[in-house]
Structures are given as structure tokens and as C-alpha cells.
Amino acid sequence: MVKIGVLALQGAVREHVESLEAPDCEVSVVKRIEQLDELDGLVFPGGESTTMRRLIDKYHFREPLQQFAAAEKPVFGTCAGLILMAEDITGEPEGHLQLMDMEVERNAFGRQRESFETTLSVKGVGDDIEAVFIRAPLIKSVGDEVEILCEYNGEIVAARQNHLLACSYHPELTKDTRFHQYFVQMVRESKEAASTVTAAP
Amino acid sequence: MADRGTDRVKRGMAEMQKGGVIMDVVNGEQAKIAEEAGAVAVMALERVPSDIRAAGGVARMADPTIVEEVMNAVSIPVMAKARIGHIVEARVLEALGADYIDESEVLTPADDVYHMDKNEFTVPFVCGCRDLGEALRRIGEGASMLRTKGEPGTGNIVEAVRHMRMVQSQIKKVANMSKDELMTEAKNLGAPYELLLDIQENGKLPVVNFAAGGIATPADAALMMELGADGVFVGSGIFKSENPAKFARSIVEATTHYQDYELIGQLSKDLGTAMKGIEMSTLDPSQRMQDRSE
């Protein structure tokens, strides 16, 4: 059994909870720091990154979230969640949680009228994956340790850095759960690896 | 291939606002205060509802200069209001780049019979509702988000509570009906049959439903969340209070942690005077904005 939490300070939480569903996966909604202790993986949902950042600061979530990632527990962010994870944000002095070695640009496609949906091939996940982009960010550049999982029109829209996973669109708004199940598998593997280490003599 | 303006793209935008507060602002400076306080979006207006109420006369779409000023001031989504049935105001706001349009009874209706066919637009719409029939008629016309009508600009929560409870109880009723009862219920509610079928299958509305119209304190916002709102609109409450920045922050926190009563108690301290408010029985029927459309 793995336990995955969805950070619920603001945003589309329920959709992630539904997409993460698996027989061996217990999903919870996270509003308080102490809930992080019992989790094997964490999801940052879509929403408004400025609102989430304010609430993260207000409730002193920043360090505990950074420690969670530093303990090599898997973290997955979509859209605003990806923005929270980035080391750098174009035009801003620094990133929010600075977990992942990448620079992202907010609202990179323009305003809501430019929002769209399409289908994508994502490395290691599958083909014809439905992707909904809503006032979406783009990954402008990535560090050496980051693997690019998907590009759209030559721009990076999904990436992985070891135990960290991020995409600029919303897999949680579709019935296609392959991307979420890819993350659930990351959490299973990470938990297994951790227990092997602990069990070693 | 990229498809714009699909139901999923338009409704999804509102899904991202869940658990958040959308604040009425009349200029760039207020918009910045709202963004700084943690608003998920702002509604750009020429006047907040209580001032519209006080001014009387015909209330129209805001001057595009104001909408542009607000869009330039913040990075969060910007909404704007068009008069009910005013296709051209809505098209102008879409052309300006507004992220969401509120076809709103707060403005003086341009059409006293028909709402707009919102399916024709790329930009998503939010509309007001007092009951499930009204909610589903608006969705049928293409609204991607709903809000209670409440009674705007009164600082009195009673109408928003009535509308939220009404919609929630009617959803429960439909969800528990057998399929052969739905057509008659559709007739009784004046709602599209297919949408009732959807509710019966999924047990919820197919779009997000926020609370609006009379929210004046952090406790009011939390109350609406408790009653099942997906988020809240705060109109006159914030910038008519003594300390807007503090007030705005408190409403945002009370919405996130709506069941943390100790916290809401803390948030409610020393906020200064909330807006005075209007008792419903003293409001002349002709001044009731919620009755301007069905």
C-alpha cells in the first residue's frame, strides 16, 4: 500500500484524487503540515500559483515541502503545481519551492481565450494522451539531470528529474489516467527502494 | 492540432479556481491588493455593486480602459461583467482578452427575455442562479461556471444562503430520483432533460458553483463553503471595509480553512467595521437585482 497526498490549499483537488485511484493506493487531501509525515508521495494540483504560494508562506509549508522532496519522496505537479516546483520563473527574482532544475514561464500561451486541448505522446507514459492546457506555463530550459518527457511545438511541456515529475497541462481534467498511474508507479518503486535500504543489515 | 474554447477548456478554467476567492476591483491598484492577498481572480468593474445600487440609473459594461488597466496590473485571471443578453459587450470583453465573462444581473439587463448563447464564444462565462432550474438553463446556454445570485451589494448573506441551499437540495433530490421521473422533473424545473440525466448519474453539477451576493465577512465566506460552494466571489465587502488588504487576506484564509473555527475566530479579530449592509425587508422589490432574470 502506498499513500499519496494532494496539497489542498487551493485548486482542482478532487480530480487528482480520482485520477490517482489504484487498488494499492490510499489518497488523502493535505491541508496541514503534520499530514506530510505519513505520505509516500505528494501531488501539487492545478490552480493559481500566486494564491498557493501565499498560503504556503502563511502556514509555513515551504520548508516541510522542500524537506519532503529532499527525502527523495516522489512529487508530481501539474500547471500551477509545476510552477511551484521550478527553480526559476521567467521575470521573477526566484522560484517558489525550487525543487526541480528548470526555468518556467507563466501564462506562456497567453490568456484564457488561447487555452486549448490536444493529444500528446509522453515518453514512458504512452501515445495519444489527452492534454488540456489552461493559461498554461511552459518549461523554457532544464538542467542536466532533468529528462524531457514531452514537447509541444518544440517547447517542453512535461519533464522528470529522478523522483520529481511535472507537466504544464492538466491530465486530471481527462478520463485518461495513464500519467497519474505513471506517478503512482514512481511512488511504489520509491517506497520499495526505501524499504530495501532500511531492511539491509 | 489544438482545439480552443472546448467545454473542457472552459469548464476546466473554473475548476482551477476552486477553493479560492474572486474579488471585485475597480482599478489596477485594488487588483494588486487582491492578488497580493491571494485572490484566485479579480472581477474588473467600474463600480462595485453597493455603489451601483447607490448610484441608480443604468449600469453597463465597464470602460475598457479599466479592464485593460486591471489586466496589466496582475498575472491572475481577470473577469469582467457584461449585461444579460448584451452580445456586443461580451464580444468586446472577449476581444479585450478578459479571461471570463460574468453575464450579470448586477448590471441592468439589455435583454429582458433571453440570455446569450454562450456556446458561441471562445471565452468562458459565469452566470447567476437561485435554483437548479435556473442553473441548468444557464449551463444549457453554455455557461461554464455558476454562482449563486444572492443579493449583490447588500452585505447580507441571507439570499446567497437561500440560493445555495436550494440548489444543493434539488441536486440531492434529482440524484435520488429514478430515471422515469426525470422528464417530469425537467418540465417542473424548466431545465434540459439531458442535464438532469447527467446530475442523476454523477450526483453533482457538471460545472463549478461559487457563492456570490452578500458575502461581507470571513465567517460568511466559510459559511458558504460549508454549505457546498466551490469558492466565493466577494464584491463590495472588501474595498468597502476599513482595511481592505487585511480583510482580503482573512477572507482567503477563511475560505481555505472553512472548518477551522479557531482560525476563523483569529481572522475575524480587529478587522474594523464591515460594510453596513441592508436588511432584505427594507429593500424595495424593484431594487432586487436577483429578480432581473430567470
TrEMBL record, chain A:
GO biological process: L-glutamine catabolic process; pyridoxal phosphate biosynthetic process; pyridoxine metabolic process
Function: Catalyzes the hydrolysis of glutamine to glutamate and ammonia as part of the biosynthesis of pyridoxal 5'-phosphate. The resulting ammonia molecule is channeled to the active site of PdxS.
Family to which the UniProt record says this protein belongs: Belongs to the glutaminase PdxT/SNO family.
Keyword Transcription assigned: no
Listed name of the protein: Pyridoxal 5'-phosphate synthase subunit PdxT
PROSITE patterns: GATASE_TYPE_1 (PS51273), PDXT_SNO_1 (PS01236), PDXT_SNO_2 (PS51130)
GO MF annotation list: glutaminase activity; pyridoxal 5'-phosphate synthase (glutamine hydrolysing) activity
Catalysed reactions listed for this entry: L-glutamine + H2O = L-glutamate + NH4(+); aldehydo-D-ribose 5-phosphate + D-glyceraldehyde 3-phosphate + L-glutamine = pyridoxal 5'-phosphate + L-glutamate + phosphate + 3 H2O + H(+)
InterPro entries xref list: Class_I_gatase-like, PdxT/SNO, PdxT/SNO_CS
UniProt-listed Enzyme Commission number(s): 4.3.3.6, 3.5.1.2
HAMAP family assigned: PdxT
Binding site for L-glutamine: 47-49, 106, 134-135
Origin: domain of life: Bacteria
UniProt entry keywords in alphabetical sequence: Glutamine amidotransferase, Hydrolase, Lyase, Pyridoxal phosphate
Signal peptide: none
List of catalytic residues: 79 (nucleophile), 170 (charge relay system), 172 (charge relay system)
Biological or metabolic pathway of the protein: Cofactor biosynthesis; pyridoxal 5'-phosphate biosynthesis
GO cellular component: cytosol; glutaminase complex
Keyword Lyase in annotation: yes
Quaternary structure note: In the presence of PdxS, forms a dodecamer of heterodimers. Only shows activity in the heterodimer.
TrEMBL record, chain B:
Domain PdxS/SNZ N-terminal per the UniProt entry, residue ranges: 7-212
Alphabetical list of HAMAP family matching this protein: PdxS
Molecular-function GO terms, alphabetical: pyridoxal 5'-phosphate synthase (glutamine hydrolysing) activity
Record-listed D-ribose 5-phosphate binding positions: 24, 153, 214, 235-236
Protein name per UniProt: Pyridoxal 5'-phosphate synthase subunit PdxS
Residue numbers annotated as active site: 81 (schiff-base intermediate with d-ribose 5-phosphate)
Pfam families: SOR_SNZ
CDD domains attached to this UniProt entry: pdxS (cd04727)
Record note on quaternary structure: Homohexamer and homododecamer. In the presence of PdxT, forms a dodecamer of heterodimers.
Keyword field: Lyase, Pyridoxal phosphate, Schiff base
Biological processes annotated in GO: amino acid metabolic process; pyridoxal phosphate biosynthetic process; pyridoxine biosynthetic process
Reactions this protein catalyses: aldehydo-D-ribose 5-phosphate + D-glyceraldehyde 3-phosphate + L-glutamine = pyridoxal 5'-phosphate + L-glutamate + phosphate + 3 H2O + H(+)
Native organism taxonomy: Bacteria, Bacillati, Bacillota, Bacilli, Bacillales
InterPro entries: Aldolase_TIM (IPR013785), PdxS/SNZ (IPR001852), PdxS/SNZ_N (IPR033755), RibuloseP-bd_barrel (IPR011060)
Gene designation per UniProt: pdxS
Pathway: Cofactor biosynthesis; pyridoxal 5'-phosphate biosynthesis
Residues that coordinate or bind D-glyceraldehyde 3-phosphate: 165
Species name: Alteribacillus iranensis
Family (UniProt): Belongs to the PdxS/SNZ family.
